[in-house]
Amino acid sequence: MAPKLFASSQAKLDQYIHSFTVFCRTQAFDLDSQSFNFERTHRRAESNCHVIESTSGPAQTNTELGSAVLTVPKLHVERKDTYICKGGVDARRLLSLTRQSLYLSAKNLGGTVLVDESWDCRIIYPKLEGKSRKPDQYKVKIHYFASVARSRWPDAKKPVRLEAVKGVRGLMTVLDRQ
After folding, report:
1. According to the model, what pLDDT value does residue 30 have?
2. Strand, helix or coil at 40?
3. Which of 9, 17, 62, 104 makes an SS bond possible with 156, Cβ 3.0 to 4.6 Å?
4. How many angstroms separate the CA atoms of 9 and 78, rounded?
5. Are residues 108 and 86 in contact, defined by beta-carbon separation less than 8 angstroms?
């Protein structure tokens, strides 16, 4: 009975490998060199979509903390979130949600504040024909970096350089978060 099960499992495995190979070839993955062709994928994305990018710039600590940090930051943490939104993009709110998740991770590591923070935000939406047409959905990618430290003052609970983030006007509905 075991050989039959193995033969069946082997056939499934072969099918999965074949499907994965076909997928990789259609998604710009070069199986011979074992490297992803980012240039080809980036060109394809740029030709079909608009991208709004914003960044906080170099790493900085919230001014509300001042010199109250008790320990030197040693542990660097980061978080990447992808949101699918409809109607508009309130990037300030999404950035705050990502920072809040990163702060909870920092608390689990024993930290009380985030210092040396920086972030990148990309809003991607399709190009549409006609000036009056508005995209139905937006993909928002946020990458947040920080260091964990301990302080006698509470965390600021807001992202640094929040005024630098760009959004899309409209009533935002978050459909998915990854």
Report:
1. 42
2. helix
3. 62
4. 39
5. no
